[in-house]
Amino acid sequence: MKHFLDLASLSTSEIEHLLQLAVHLKLEWESGGNRPVLKNQILGMVFQKPSLRTRVSFEVGMKHLGGDAIMLGPQEIGLGKRESIGDVARVLSGYVNGIMARVFAHQHVTELAKYASVPVINGLSDDSHPCQAMADVLTIKERFGSLRGLKVAYIGDGNNVATSLLYAAAHLGMDFSIATPEGYEMPSRVRERGAGIAAHSGTDVIWTTHPEQAVEGAHVIYTDTWVSMGQEEETAARRATFAPYQVNSDLISQAHADAIVLHCLPAHRGDEITDDVADGPHSMIFDQAENRLHAQKAILVKLMAP
Ligand code: CP
Ligand code: NVA
Questions:
Q1: Using a 6 Å CB cutoff, which residues line ligand 2?
Q2: Which atom, in ligand 2's list, is nearest to the CA of 161?
Q3: What are the two backbone dihedrals, phi and then psi, of residue 229, each rounded to the nearest 5 degrees?
Q4: 129: annotated active-site residue
Q5: Pocket perturbation via mutation, ligand 2, pick of 126, 159, 273 by most ligand atoms within 8 A of CB
Q6: CA of 235 to the centre of ligand 2 (A)
Q7: 146 partner at 20 to 30 Å CA-CA among 47, 137, 207, 218?
């Protein structure tokens, strides 16, 4: 594994190994601190979009592992505008030991990876959010012990977060159901890749427009914003279309009694999730946010440790 761009292109055993490493690094951190296996290593963090969790967890993670990180916001780099992506990748490779990038077009991370001589990590693109999915499965594993045989239900937009969650669930033996309004389904290419991975691991994938059907018997109920970064002009239309897809106490009462509620955050409380659910007994959203740190340490160590 040279880069970390997309869970569909990793093997199940690579993902399982990352998850085990995340569990180990979290335990190590909680038992007094991580060994400085990334001493003197610098992560360059390229952001074309805003971030709280991704930015802070990567920077803190590098510091816990003995290294450091540099933040490069949209004003500094002008990725593909001030300078070509290939040139940015080659220049940065001379200064830093790894690049984490949050971009609009997914092609921008694949192009960084093509030209960089150091590992590239996808910190969210319009197509996928694989770092998030690793934190998600770590959180599910902590709650249920093992993953195989669980059912994950995603309610809302068939977006980047949903895509990576589908791939992670399919790789790791969890059934996946998704309820989206018509016109907001995942792209057919993603559905085919997800179904292919699920067939390989013997799990089910259910596509529906009915949230109640998706959550039936589910151990995990997951939602994300109805309006992703870059879609702000569609806000009014999306809020109207997605209103029946809110994760509220009625909906979770139809899931498994021990179901947990996850959300990658930031949450738009009162839209895709209600306050009583986000702050209620089923919610693990803040454990999930913390797990970004631990899951990403595993990715950093795997790609960057000498
Ligand atoms: N979940 C997530 O990626 O959060 P940020 O956008 O704050 O990084
Ligand atoms: N789907 C959201 C996730 C934010 C972490 C977005 O792309 O804006």
A1: 124, 159-161, 224-225, 228-229, 264
A2: 1
A3: -60, 130
A4: yes
A5: 159
A6: 14
A7: 207
Distance in Å, CA 289 to ligand 1 centroid: 9
Match 């340490």 to its residue by tokens: 297
The two structure tokens encoding residue 209: 């427009």
Is 292 known to be catalytic? yes
Delimit the domains of the chain by residue range. 7-129+292-304, 132-288
For the chain, the first-to-last Cα distance in angstroms comes to 14
Rounded Cα distance, 114 and 262, in Å: 34
Nearby residues of 147 by Cβ (< 8 Å), 6 or more positions away: 137, 140, 141, 172, 173, 174
String of DSSP letters for 39-85 = TT-EEEEEESS--SHHHHHHHHHHHHTT-EEEEE-HHHH-BTTTB-H
What value does the mean pLDDT take over residues 150-171?
A: 98
What's the CA gap between 284 and 222, in Å, rounded? Answer: 10
Respond yes or no: is residue 264 known to be catalytic: yes
Distance 94 CA to ligand 2 centre (A): 30
Q: What angle do CA 238, 186, 144 make, to 5 degrees?
A: 100
Residue 204 predicted with pLDDT over 90: yes
| Check whether domain 7-129+292-304 has CATH 3.40.50.2300, yes or no | no
Quick one: average pLDDT of 146-173? 98
Report CA(229)–ligand 2 centroid distance (Å). Answer: 6
Q: Which ligand is nearest to the CA of 285?
A: 1
When pLDDT is averaged across residues 145-149 and rounded to a whole number, the result is 97
With a threshold of 0.90, does the pTM exceed it?
yes
pLDDT digits (tens, 9 = 90+) for 60-80: 999 999 999 999 998 888 898
